[in-house]
From TrEMBL:
PROSITE patterns to which the protein is assigned, alphabetical: RHODANESE_3 (PS50206)
GO MF assignments: ATP binding; nucleotidyltransferase activity; sulfotransferase activity; thiosulfate-cyanide sulfurtransferase activity; ubiquitin-like modifier activating enzyme activity
Cited Pfam families: Rhodanese, ThiF
Protein name per the record: Molybdopterin-synthase adenylyltransferase MoeB
Length: 386
């Protein structure tokens, strides 16, 4: 027996959640349960937007938001939790403000940090369900591994162009992420949405499906997508389902598991991280890979070796200018403890600069293939060329 003062919904809540209260599968008990629930959403982006919005509207009492990124104009095509006025703000803050406007009765906990093998354990603390709205393999393996060791259900999805996949991994009752994806794909072999594009509305379809799975798990109703993998082909308008089973050879949840501790998870994460870093081909990074390359190798210096006059016409954001003659004078001026990607107009000067840096002993130098000209044509067609 619980006392009415603790559990009864207020008049406002009875109105707000009236359509839930009418469902026998939810009702008063289910709504109270949602209000006591805690869901951690990784990424306030394309998938995270519908996930966060629907969980807040549904009255999930505590919603944790993990994202260390800021809102960019290119996000707004699909990340509908943010507005144009939010460009430049932390995604966590922008999303939390929108959720508070939708449902002030929901508490948001902002984790404006990068998800790593170090931060993941504190982040998962106290949550009932984890929903992954990110777009990279390292995060999926890390969350899959950490959730399995913690016994938490992991609501996973992936988007690419017009295709999507969705499942719930719960090693206590079914396969884990690793059962289905035993080893990370080869580095650079899987294009990301940043390279291949994605139809924005797809994120709405699949994110809403993730929110539905999370609510089913919290309410304990229906048949969650554990042991089943749903795929959605938007061009055909078709959902398909594949049964996925526990893999007896699974390194995480099989009888001969090798990923057993936090240290094992950290090692496996480092291995998976290399997938998201596009491998430079013979020391060259393609312009379409540049953003991902830089974000997956924090601290990388983008070194522009053109002249000041050229840089004034067009420059890649975040680049540091060091004209080639100055660099050749003293290659030692470039610190050797950070990776370098050298940029020039079309690739000739960057090759000379890279040679000089390598000759000076720099251990990690790559060149931007095709230089600023190819960056403009492939990545930033609105920028001037010369
Ligand atoms: Zn497994």
């Amino acid at each position: 027996m619980t006392t009415p003062t603790e559990t009864d919904l207020t008049t406002e809540q009875r109105s707000r959640y009236a359509r839930h209260l009418l469902l026998p599968e939810v009702g008063l008990a289910g709504q109270r349960r949602l209000l006591r629930s805690r869901v951690l959403v990784i990424g306030a982006g394309g998938l995270g937007s519908p996930v966060l919005t629907y969980l807040a509207a549904a009255g999930v009492g505590t919603i944790g938001i993990v994202d260390d990124d800021t809102v960019d104009l290119t996000n707004l095509q699909r990340q509908v939790v943010h507005r144009t006025a939010d460009v430049g703000r932390l995604k966590t803050e922008s999303a939390a403000e929108r959720l508070a406007a939708i449902n002030p009765g929901v508490r948001t906990v902002l984790h404006s940090v990068r998800l790593t093998a170090e931060t993941v354990w504190d982040l998962l603390e106290g949550y009932d369900v984890v929903v992954d709205g990110t777009d990279n393999f390292a995060t999926r393996y890390l969350l899959g591994d950490a959730c399995a060791l913690r016994g938490l259900p992991y609501v996973w999805a992936a988007l690419f162009r017009f295709d999507a996949a969705l499942s719930v991994f719960d090693a206590t009752t079914g396969p884990c992420y690793r059962c289905v994806h035993p080893v990370p794909p080869a580095p650079g072999s899987v294009p990301s949405c940043a390279e291949g594009g994605v139809l924005g509305a797809m994120a709405g379809v699949v994110g809403a499906a993730q929110a539905t799975e999370a609510l089913k798990l919290l309410l304990g109703v229906g048949r969650p997508l554990v042991g089943r993998l749903a795929t959605f082909d938007a061009l055909d308008g078709e959902w398909r389902y594949v049964t996925v089973a526990k893999n007896p050879g699974c390194a995480l949840c099989g009888p001969r598991a090798t990923i057993l501790s936090r240290a094992d998870v950290a090692d496996a994460w480092v291995e998976a991280c290399s997938v998201d870093a596009p491998a430079p081909t013979a020391g060259h990074v393609r312009p379409v890979d540049l953003a991902l390359y830089l974000s997956s190798r924090p601290g990388t210096v983008l070194l522009d070796v053109r002249s000041q006059d050229e840089a004034a016409i067009v420059s890649i954001p975040g680049s540091t200018l060091l004209p080639l003659p100055d660099l050749l004078d003293d290659p030692g001026v470039v610190a050797q403890d950070r990776p370098v990607v050298v940029v020039c107009r079309s690739g000739a000067r960057s090759a000379r600069a890279a040679d000089a840096l390598r000759a000076a002993g720099h251990p990690d130098v790559a060149e931007l293939a095709g230089g600023v000209l190819r960056w403009v044509s492939d990545v930033a067609p609105d920028q001037p060329t010369y």
